[in-house]
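Ticket #4471: structure output looks truncated?

Reporter: J.K.
Steps to reproduce: submitted the chain below (176 residues) through the standard prediction queue, then opened the result file.
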Amino acid sequence: MDGFNFKFYGKIDVAGIQKKIADAAFNWDEFSFRQVRHKVHREIKTVPLIFNEGNLLVPKYWDYFELFRNEINEIQLIIEETNHGKGTLHSAVFINLPARSKIYAHTDAGAVFSVCRRIHLPIITNPECLFTVDEETINMKEGEIWEINNDGKKHGVVNNGDTDRIHLLMDWKPAG
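Returned output as attached by the reporter:
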């Protein structure tokens, strides 16, 4: 992978996604696989759209996927046009980092990180939410699409704000 920590892909309007999340009234505590399996994620809450607990490289579609299918398709087009050409989305989850909480600094491991691109789309955030990879820290704004190069790199997030931070987290595998 290239020698970057963060790569900006563009921006989309997330007002429709915000409304759908509010209207769906997610049970943020129902799915706890990531929090239980990875202790550094113990403070986050997750709603899966595409996620396979057994093998992240084999997409599994969850009930809420259909509600967000059009938005996912739009994001996939941006990823394809911006950098990677055709590919497959192997996971897509909404992650909620509550106000005044954090994802502890850690290094990820596993095959998914060597073959997939990790994409973040902030849906709801605040200026006090900071994402760090290695020694570089940024504040991602709502609607910005970012690739995070965290393969073998220490990274973490702190939400010092008074509002929850919700991202759409995706793993994109380029074709070929």
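Triage note (M.O.): checked the attachment and the full token line is present. The first helix runs from residue 15 to 24.
Status: closed, working as intended.
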